[in-house]
Write a structure and sequence with these properties.
about 120 residues, transmembrane helix, two-stranded antiparallel sheet, mainly alpha, elongated, single chain, 5 helices
Length: about 120
């Protein structure tokens, strides 16, 4: 929660804060990718066990399947497993909430007055 508050609510314009804001979503996407690859590896191991490889003993296939099944490659941030489905659900929910807040005029975007910019010397 502190990461989200620093990302959204902080008015600080230091370069380090902007770097953090840029890297924050990237960490979540990498964690989702790790979990997705782990699920894919388990699926491939199960298919390999069912169809097998020529010249490979059943014992080797079983031991590989057990190894993959017990490998815990779950990326968690703040003890919450990060799965692609969770990220998509959060993005969709946030977009609906923002849409409702903008339509009810709870949130508004104030356009910058061009005359004020010209007076301050900015173009």
């Amino acid at each position: 929660m502190s990461g989200i508050s620093i990302l959204v609510l902080n008015k600080n314009q230091i370069t380090k804060v902007w770097v953090y804001r840029g890297l924050f979503p990237f960490v979540w996407l990498l964690a989702a990718r790790v979990n997705s690859l782990c699920n894919g590896m388990k699926k491939i191991a199960l298919e390999m066990r069912v169809f097998g490889y020529k010249g490979t003993s059943q014992l080797d296939l079983d031991s590989f399947l057990l190894f993959v099944d017990h490998a815990h490659l779950r990326a968690k941030l703040f003890h919450v497993p990060i799965l692609p489905a969770y990220l998509i659900a959060v993005i969709v929910l946030a977009s609906f909430i923002l849409l409702i807040l903008f339509q009810t005029s709870t949130l508004t975007i104030h356009p910058t007055n061009l005359n004020d910019l010209k007076k301050s010397g900015m173009n």
